[in-house]
Amino acid sequence: MDKAAEIERSIITTYRKRIWGRFVRGVKEFDMACEGDRIAVCISGGKDSMLLAKCMQELQRHSLVKFELEFICMDPGYAPANRRRIEENAEILGIPVKIFESDVFAVSEKLRAEKPCYLCARMRRGFLYERAKDLGCNKIALGHHFDDVIETLLMGIIYAAQIGGMLPRLKSTSHPGMQLIRPLYYVHEKDIITWSQRHKLEFLDCACKFSARVKDDDSLSKRREMKALIEKLREGYPNVDINIFRSMYNVHCDTLISHDFMGREHYFTERYGEKPPED
User: Fold this and answer.
1) Does some domain include residue 165?
2) 112-126 per-residue burial string, b: 16 or more CB within 10 A, e: under 16
3) Cβ neighbours of residue 202 under 8 Å, at least 6 residues apart?
4) Is residue 260 part of a domain?
5) CB 3.0–4.6 Å: which of 6, 31, 95, 246 could bond 90 by disulfide?
6) Which DSSP string corresponds to 168-185?
7) Does residue 7 belong to any structural domain of this protein?
8) Contact 230/240 with Cβ under 8 angstroms?
């Protein structure tokens, strides 16, 4: 059995419960792969997107629902060594990735943005949508996982004074007819790490040349803080991560002073037939 086949098999055997089962649950529950879909799986070079690509390949093989896949990777200006790492891993894993160039890093440097990670992510998303559309796709799949979801929820509360989550599927407002899906929504990062280590796979972390410059004040730093906070809380409450996740299913809007729905703010006094206070 070659390495690619061994890695593929482990997903549906060794990691059947922890990865494959949770992946399939998310895809089914949120209608991520439908008959006739053409899905662009977006490869960043990291462990999450590479696992996503393998799971999507397995799903395509075994699913009764017929859909097509494209595997795309945007090179925003990687150093040659990082570009080679992505190409080599794709070859090892048997992923027929199509790499296209962009000038995201150069633009971020030129603008000297205060939050280059945010700007880079926004620009990447736009490029990926455009490339996917050029390939005839109606969906892009990203590698966000369970931990990303709960960290995003906490980051919003602590740093942005808002309660907001990360949806498993959403329709693009900037690219009509396109949707974004997150098939690893229920998959825990620790299991992705275990999977990659078992097969001695070495993936890219953030290969951006700005990451060192902003390491103390960017969103990556905030996300690391959330990881540390959750780990600390888990010492006393082992299921704290699961409870944070489930809280998104149990939002009691009638206990909130205000909430936004479909772009409109609703103040609690509406329930009493009263006008909200003037700003």
Assistant:
1) yes
2) eeeebbebbeebbbe
3) 85, 89
4) no
5) 95
6) SEEE-SSSTT-EEE-TTT
7) yes
8) yes
In CATH, what number is assigned to the domain containing residue 123?
3.40.50.620
Mean pLDDT of 71-90: 91
By residue range, what is the domain housing residue 128?
3-216
Tokens of 262: 């479909």
pLDDT higher than threshold 60 for residue 217 = no
Contact by Cβ (8 Å): 169, 138:
no
Residue 141 lies in a domain: yes
Residues shown for the chain:
279
CA distance 78 to 66: 35
Position 56, amino acid: M
- CA 155/CA 221 separation, integer angstroms: 11
Q: Phi/psi of residue 94, each to 5°?
A: 70, 40
- What single letter denotes the amino acid at residue 73? C
The residues, ordered by sequence, that sit 6+ positions from 84 with a Cβ below 8 Å of its Cβ are: none
This prediction has a pTM of 0.90
Query: Structural domain tally of the chain?
Result: 1
**Which has more confidence, 75 or 70?**
70
Token pair belonging to 208: 């951006």
Within 8 A by CB and 6+ apart from 82, the residues are 45, 204, 207
